[in-house]
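Thread: "does anyone have the structure for this chain?"

Original post by V.I.:
We have the sequence but no experimental structure in hand. Need at least a predicted one for the grant figures.
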Amino acid sequence: MTLPIWHPESLAARQPFLRRRTALTAATRHFFASRGYTEVETPYAVPVPGEEVHLDTFRTERRHPDGRTEPLWLHTSPELAMKRLLVAGAGPIFQLARVWRNGEGSARHAPEFTMLEWYNPGASMDALIDETIALLRAVLPPIVTSAGVTTDLTRFERLTVAEAFDRYAGADVLGTANDAPALAASAGLRLRDGETWEDLFFRILLDRIEPRLGRDHPTFLTHWPAAQAALARRSPDDPRVAERFELFVAGIELANAFVELTDAVEQRARFNEDRARRHAMYGTDWALDEDFLAALAHGMPESAGIAMGFDRLAMLAAGADRIGQVLWLPPPDLT
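Reply from O.Q.:
Generated one for you, C-alpha cells below.
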C-alpha cells in the first residue's frame, strides 16, 4: 500500500533529496548574485500564457471589484514577462518561477513545477553556453547520476541539429526542410498517413536522437531549424537555422535557450503562424499579446535567455530517479 504524501515515513524517504534541493536553491541564488544578476518575480496568472503550439494550459478567471470578469491563464513560462523587464532596463535578471503545463505527468514531468529562467543582455549563444556550464559546475558534483545514467561534467559536447540528424539518423534535415517525403526517404523511414514534416522531425528527434544525447557527458544541441524556434533570432551565418540550443544531462532534457528575437514585425508573424497551427490542432485560443509586441517595438536589447527545469536540476544534484522525489508535496501519481 502506498503511503499518502503527508505521512511522516513518506516525507522521511524524500528528505535527503529535499535537503539537497534546499542547498541547490541557495547555491543557485549565490551564483547569479555573484555575477550581478537581479532576482525578479513576475505574475503567474496572465492574460496570455504563451504561444507554444503543443503546451496545454490551466485556465482561471479574475473578478474585478466592479463586477467585470477577465479570463486568465497560469503561465507556461515567465519568458514574455521577463522580456518586458529587459525592455524596461532591468539588466541581467533571473527567476525561480512556478509554471504550469496541463496534461503532463511522468518520472520527469509534473503539471506544476519550478523553472529557473535567466536573461543576459548583450550575450551571444556561445557566452550563454559558457555561463550554463559555469552554473552546472558551481552547483552540481562533477559526476551526476539519474535513472542509471552517469554523466561526467568535466567535458561538454556541442552538436548542431543538422549534425545530430546526420550522425544518428543518416538524414539531411536542412536539405529536406518542409518536404516530409524527402526527409522520410533521407532517414530511411516510411511516412505515416497525414504526417507532416514537423511531425516527422520530432519523431526522428525523439526516437533516434534524444536517447543518444547527454549520456557520457552533457550535450548542447544547437542551431535548430528556424521553424522550431519561434522566439529565437535567425543565425546570421545561415538563415535556415535559429540561435537556439537545448541541453541534455544524464539523458535528461534540462534546458532550452535562445538568442532572443527582438524584431516585433517578425515576432508578430511567427506568433500568428503558431496561433493558426494551435487553433487548427487543438482549438484553443486567447488574445494576441499586443502588449508584448509593443514592448518589442519599443526596443528590447539584444539578449540571450535560457529556461532550465529546476526540479530536474535538483534530480541531478540529489541523484534522484523521479521528479516526485525532489518535490515537497508531489502529486500522488508522481510519488
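V.I.: this helps a lot. The longest strand covers residues 112-121.
O.Q.: and The chain has one domain: 8-156+217-334.
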